[in-house]
Amino acid sequence: MKISNETKVGALTAIAITLLILGFNFLKGKTLFKTGNFIYAKYTDTKGIMVSNGVFINGFQVGSVYDIENADANLSAIVVAIKLKDNYNIPSNSVASIKENPLGNASITISLGDAPTYVKSGDTILTSSSAGLLGDVMNKLGPVGDQIKATVGSLDSVLKNINTIFDPATKNNLQEVIANINKTTASLVVSSASIQSMLNQQTGAITASMNNVNSFTKNLADNNEKVTRMLSNVEKTTENLSKADIDGTVAQLKNSIETLNSILAKASSTDGSLGKLLNDKTLYDNLSNTVRSANILMDDLRVHPKRYVNISVFGKKDKTGPLMAPLDSTKLK
């Protein structure tokens, strides 16, 4: 039987359409027959997730979104079918969340749990709502916005209070205060001019003082060698003092003072000869009598020499009695 061209064209068209549909579904991650490992996740908001979007665990793509269906007519929940590439050990308490990407497609990230049992094919995994990048930013900006609103409200209240305080009388008082400030500023200008004049008058004295200081420093510079020698001499003196046996000298001085104190103590007591001589009145009287007797003897020898030296050819012996008291001339001496 001969097949007409129209039949051939129709058959080729049907095959082409079938291949196109199968290829399109294949590119979207769907196959003609639903085979493989499938798990399901329920969300109240899919946040724009689409079929063939990736599913990741620890940054590794383990599958893709196979299908999205509503759980009921009220759209209270949306079921997302996830096709896994292989049979992975996913703990039963793992959580699948949708991550928004403002620069690309949304994806599903599964955070692994620690349960000893694993999710099987056909099970429904736990889900959570993730704010995403923009959501995180908005959540962080939310408190800031609330603070700004509170600040604006406080500023509005302050401005209202300021408007209430600034009545006409207060404004007049402020104007008077500003006028007084202007007067004070003018007075300060006059005072500064007076101070400048005083400084100008004192310029000569200041210049003279500076000249004296310059002269003093010049003299120091001119006598630098003398000052250096003087400092060297002082340094040598201090070095000699540091080398000197000051402790020994002080010890010797202490010993000398102790010896002198001992001598003075003995002189003050009546034990020694010097002490008796200084403190014994009887010895003093005897010494006085001895001196007096010596004076009498000297006066008698001077007045009656013949009594003691009897050398005479024609003379006679001096028969006058001896002196009993010193003469007045001797007493005066």
Automatic annotation (TrEMBL):
Transmembrane segments: 9-27
Swiss-Prot/TrEMBL keywords: Membrane, Transmembrane, Transmembrane helix
Pfam families the record matches: MlaD
Family annotation (InterPro entries): Mce/MlaD, MlaD_Phospholipid_Transporter
Ranges where the Mce/MlaD domain occurs: 36-111
This protein's record includes keyword Signal: no
Superkingdom field: Bacteria
UniProt cross-references to PANTHER family, sorted A to Z: INTERMEMBRANE PHOSPHOLIPID TRANSPORT SYSTEM BINDING PROTEIN MLAD, INTERMEMBRANE PHOSPHOLIPID TRANSPORT SYSTEM BINDING PROTEIN MLAD-RELATED
Protein name per the record: Phospholipid/cholesterol/gamma-HCH transport system substrate-binding protein
Organism, scientific name: Sediminibacterium goheungense
